[in-house]
């Protein structure tokens, strides 16, 4: 890391927190806080997360390097090598903090969440409405000073649009299909969408409250259930954060097995998504074939690790169980199978003109917005943002593996499908390499220093994008506070932008190409 | 005696249609499932669904008016009558002489009118979206259908279907460009009218993309059963129409006797199965089009119908 980076020098003016690893966390003054907001607004830095606890707010930010490793097709960025990751913490003794969203809109929903959960008020925020709190919890501020709810919440006011012939179409939270709940309020003129406003929070489970005081074992299980389709990525992020906090060194074989599971998860989800997007254009053939591929991955996962979705397989300190003796054989057969079946499906997608007609140029998101929101995953990379947490910050064993981070610039539904196709190919190559070079040895180790408090943070690339987990361990080895930040936080708002200038009937296609997580977002 | 027989044959044809319609829908679903490498439900599933719906309680929205309750019966009646006007296994049955192709178009238009009204009646946004899209499609599909009718009637000298079917069997029809155009136009209209891919998706759960399904979202119980049955009948009607006009071979004639009728029924069933299979293959191999592309699609059908008619004025042999 480069100690002379602007971000680090600004943060060093605050009081660094010694037990925070692996990146710098500093308690800052409101001047530094405002300087950070300024930098975020100007696009110098990217917002990674914003969360609170009683009396303090934390802001995670990232400064990108000039040439992100492995991605050569990119516009130059301010600094070489790897990026810098920091957490700035602003104490709020009077229950309020200077709003980040005032200058940097991506923070808006995060701030409204802080106000709901912790009760800290962002000063100067343009949107004071609640976000996750729909007025149906028995208490208010469950993560701050918990008080019983007394007054009913006033009705939620949706943003308005004025004009002749405009009408509203409320969709959800209960949908005609079996999908997660979320409310979408369209203002449309006939078929043309004038404005889309989302309302989420229907699957709020209070995971952050449940995590407080949980043992590491229970916390790992909880984290693995924040968003079920990314259970490996979440468990990995949590394990890495715990290991950072306790300075535990994990056996090499465990790293490789974790990467193997992460790639299997990516493979399964991308296969499912490619088919599901096409199915939303009523091209069920693609879904049928892709579902077969996904099922093959799930069965191989069950045969190798004992769980179809690989839930609870990664724990702090390593992985639960080693590959069985025939595991390598099963996975080799899986990779060969998919390599054989996948190319005809790509041809089918590419050669079906009626399908291309639906996906090309649909749901375009401006690359400037993607950059502003720090949107990761397939949506970000389909819009020119090459961020991949496997490279930057990077974690083992990806530093020893050869893979590309595919980047496209078209930023439409078609680009998002192609990006998934390229990533499937990369994941297959990665699984091949891992199976080839899997080191021997133990697969789990003991955690260090569980009797001391510590703070850890990790950023892991899930199939949806970068997952951030920040945690503080108490002296008795339980979790004092843990905040998982789903990539969807920075993707859902862009869906509102993607549907502009599209028609109402194309929304499902745009939505599926995003495939945001409701559960991971609502916590 | 002859009149009683005529009534019996006509009555059995109407009953046959009613009984066959769910099977055709189920068969197409089964074909599609096979094409998607799925096992899929049995072709008899629509019968089970209908009997389930008939036994279920009707849930009415508070804002539903009498129109909403009456519409399913009207729609069902109009489509059933329209379907029984089409010669299926035999031509020249009792009802065939009472009404012609234009009457069929009018009956279908009536059914659509009431369905669109019912979609608007409850006042939900999806019903409104469905009705407005349905009307957009219909505004082009109906003229296209009429142009197809004109092409046929110019050729056959009548709009009466039994006569058209008999005319098509005569040797002097030959290969005609205008008939080819009319066939394509009718197939395009049939796809749009029956809410099939690529115009609509009968299997979708995405409320924002629906056309037909959006209009009937609020229906339940026996109302929904009638609407589903009417939709199946309509599909059967269009396949029968295609068969009767463009593949009239093997059709019995009124008064042929029992065994001829039976043979006619067997051939008719074969035509339906083939039509269903072709539809399933077509639907599997194409994605749904953007809503605003539907008017281009229907516009093409209209132009084909128009071209077919105009060609007949240019040359009698085209």
TrEMBL record, chain B:
A Pfam family found in this protein is NADHdh
Which keywords has UniProt assigned to this entry? Membrane, Transmembrane, Transmembrane helix
Where are its TM segments located? Answer: 12-31, 73-95, 101-123, 144-167, 173-192, 235-252, 258-282, 294-314
Domain of life assignment: Bacteria
Q: What does the record say about its membrane topology?
A: Multi-pass membrane protein
One cellular component GO annotation, for this chain's record? plasma membrane
Localization recorded for this chain is: Membrane
Protein's recorded name: Hydrogenase protein
What is the source species?
Answer: Candidatus Contendobacter odensis Run_B_J11
């Amino acid at each position: 890391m480069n100690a002379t980076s602007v971000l680090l020098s600004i943060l060093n003016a605050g009081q660094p927190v010694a037990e925070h690893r692996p990146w710098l966390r500093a308690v800052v003054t409101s001047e530094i806080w405002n300087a950070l907001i300024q930098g975020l607004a100007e696009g110098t830095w990217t917002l990674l997360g914003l969360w609170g606890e009683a009396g303090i707010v934390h802001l995670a930010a990232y400064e990108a390097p000039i040439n992100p490793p492995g991605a050569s097709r990119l516009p130059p960025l301010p600094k070489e090598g790897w990026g810098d990751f920091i957490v700035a913490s602003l104490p709020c003794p009077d229950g309020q903090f200077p709003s980040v969203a005032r200058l940097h809109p991506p923070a808006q929903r995060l701030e409204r969440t802080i106000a709901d959960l912790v009760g800290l008020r962002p000063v100067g925020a343009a949107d004071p409405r609640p976000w996750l709190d729909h007025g149906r919890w028995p208490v208010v501020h469950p993560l701050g000073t918990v008080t019983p709810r007394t007054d009913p919440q006033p009705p939620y006011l949706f943003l308005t649009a004025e004009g002749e012939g405009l009408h509203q179409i409320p969709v959800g939270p209960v949908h005609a299909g079996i999908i997660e709940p979320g409310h979408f309020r369209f203002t449309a003129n006939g078929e043309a969408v004038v404005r889309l406003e989302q309302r989420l929070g229907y699957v709020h489970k209070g995971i952050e409250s449940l995590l407080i005081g949980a043992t590491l074992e229970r916390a790992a299980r909880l984290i693995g259930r924040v968003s079920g389709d990314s259970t490996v990525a979440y468990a990995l992020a949590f394990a890495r954060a715990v290991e950072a906090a306790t300075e535990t060194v994990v056996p090499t074989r465990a790293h490789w097995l974790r990467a193997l599971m992460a790639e299997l998860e990516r493979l399964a989800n991308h296969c499912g998504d490619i088919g599901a997007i096409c199915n939303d254009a009523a091209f069920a053939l693609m879904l049928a074939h892709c579902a077969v591929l996904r099922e093959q991955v799930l069965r191989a996962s069950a045969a190798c690790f004992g769980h179809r979705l690989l839930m609870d397989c990664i724990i702090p300190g390593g992985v639960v169980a080693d590959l069985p003796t025939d595991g390598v054989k099963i996975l080799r057969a899986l990779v060969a199978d998919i390599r054989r079946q996948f190319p005809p499906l790509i041809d089918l997608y590419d050669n079906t003109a009626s399908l291309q007609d639906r996906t090309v140029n649909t749901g375009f998101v401006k690359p400037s917005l993607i950059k502003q929101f720090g949107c990761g995953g397939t949506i970000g990379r389909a819009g020119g943002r090459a961020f991949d947490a496997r490279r930057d910050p990077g974690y083992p064993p990806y530093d020893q593996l050869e893979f590309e981070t595919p980047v496209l610039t078209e930023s439409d539904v078609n680009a998002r499908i192609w990006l998934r196709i390229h990533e499937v190919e990369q994941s297959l190559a990665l699984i091949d390499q891992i199976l080839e070079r899997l080191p021997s040895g133990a697969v789990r180790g003991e955690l260090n220093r569980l009797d001391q408090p510590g703070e850890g943070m990790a950023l892991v690339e899930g199939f949806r994008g970068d997952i951030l987990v920040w945690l503080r361990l108490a002296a008795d080895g339980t979790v004092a506070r843990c905040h998982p930040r789903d990539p969807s936080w920075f993707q859902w708002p862009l869906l509102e932008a993607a549907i502009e200038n599209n028609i109402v009937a194309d929304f499902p296609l745009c939505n599926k190409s995003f495939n945001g997580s409701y559960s991971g977002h609502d916590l | 005696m002859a009149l009683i027989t005529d009534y019996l044959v006509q009555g059995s044809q109407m009953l046959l249609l009613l009984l066959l319609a769910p099977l055709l829908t189920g068969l197409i679903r089964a074909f599609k499932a096979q094409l998607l490498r799925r096992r899929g439900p049995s072709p008899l599933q629509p019968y089970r669904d209908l009997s389930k719906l008939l036994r279920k309680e009707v849930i009415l929205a508070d804002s539903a008016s009498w129109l909403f309750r009456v519409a399913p019966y009207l729609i069902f009646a109009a489509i059933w009558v329209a379907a029984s006007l089409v010669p299926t296994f035999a031509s020249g049955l009792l009802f065939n002489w009472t009404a012609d192709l234009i009457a069929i178009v009018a009956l279908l238009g009536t059914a659509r009118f009431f369905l669109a009204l019912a979609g608007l009646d409850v006042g939900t946004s999806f019903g409104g979206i469905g009705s407005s899209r349905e009307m957009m499609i219909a505004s082009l599909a109906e003229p296209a259908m009429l142009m197809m009718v004109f092409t046929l009637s110019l050729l056959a000298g009548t709009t009466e279907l039994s006569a058209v079917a008999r005319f098509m069997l005569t040797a002097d029809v030959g290969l005609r460009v205008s008939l080819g155009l009319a066939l394509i136009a009718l197939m395009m209209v049939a796809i749009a009218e029956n809410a099939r891919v690529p115009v609509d998706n009968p299997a979708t759960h995405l409320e924002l993309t629906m056309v037909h399904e959006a209009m009937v979202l609020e229906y339940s119980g026996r109302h929904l059963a009638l609407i589903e049955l009417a939709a199946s009948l309509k599909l059967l009607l269009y396949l029968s129409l295609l068969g009767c006009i463009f593949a009239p071979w093997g059709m019995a004639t009124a008064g042929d006797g029992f065994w001829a009728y039976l043979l006619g029924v067997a051939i008719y069933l074969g035509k339906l199965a083939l039509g269903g299979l072709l539809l399933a293959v077509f639907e599997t191999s194409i994605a749904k089009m953007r809503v605003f592309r539907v008017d281009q699609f229907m516009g093409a059908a209209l132009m084909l119908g128009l071209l077919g008619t105009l060609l007949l004025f240019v040359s009698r042999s085209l």
